[in-house]
Design brief:
Elements (H helix, E strand, L loop, with lengths): L3 E5 L5 E5 L13 E2 L6 E2 L2 H23 L9 H26 L4 H17 L22
Antiparallel strand pairs: 1-2, 3-4
Helix pairs in contact: 1-2, 1-3
Length: 144
């Protein structure tokens, strides 16, 4: 059987060991593990919930990146603390989104990309009054 290999036991008898196969290429289907072992499993409803979770997660990451939470004139120490906590939250959620995409499930990749796109759209200047002299609370994310 694929994924099972016999291994010798301490008394010389052969036993069967179940090895779990991990996808290393993108695949389609609801049989995936996203973030946690056995989640969402083989249940289609749990897979849909996992996709919704990843979608909302990526929307929140974009909104955190492009929304002002600190009002001008706030105490610099307090503003620095809030900015640090927002950065901590954004980076943690970004890593969760990255790990979800690393499940190599095509549906997860699509909802993550669409979630980032929707979050960017919602936080764009289309819905906000322009404040050309004000930046965002957090600097843009960069890898290098």
């Amino acid at each position: 059987m694929e994924g099972m290999a016999p291994s010798p036991s301490s008394n010389g008898a052969m036993t069967t060991v179940h090895k779990k196969m991990t996808h290393m290429t993108f695949f389609w289907g609801k049989e995936a593990e996203i973030l946690f072992e056995n989640w969402p499993g083989d249940n289609g409803n749990m897979y849909a919930l996992a996709l919704i979770f990843v979608f909302v997660l990526t929307v929140v990451v974009e909104l955190l990146s492009r929304t002002r939470f600190i009002k001008p004139g706030t105490n610099h120490v307090f503003a620095g603390l809030i900015q640090t906590l927002l950065h901590l939250l954004r980076v943690g959620l970004s890593y969760l989104a990255m790990l979800a995409v690393m499940s190599f499930n095509g549906g997860v990749l699509l909802v993550a990309v669409f979630g980032h796109a929707l979050g960017f759209f919602l936080s764009s200047r289309v819905f906000q009054k322009p404040h050309y002299d004000e930046g965002y609370d957090l600097p843009p994310m960069s890898c290098c």
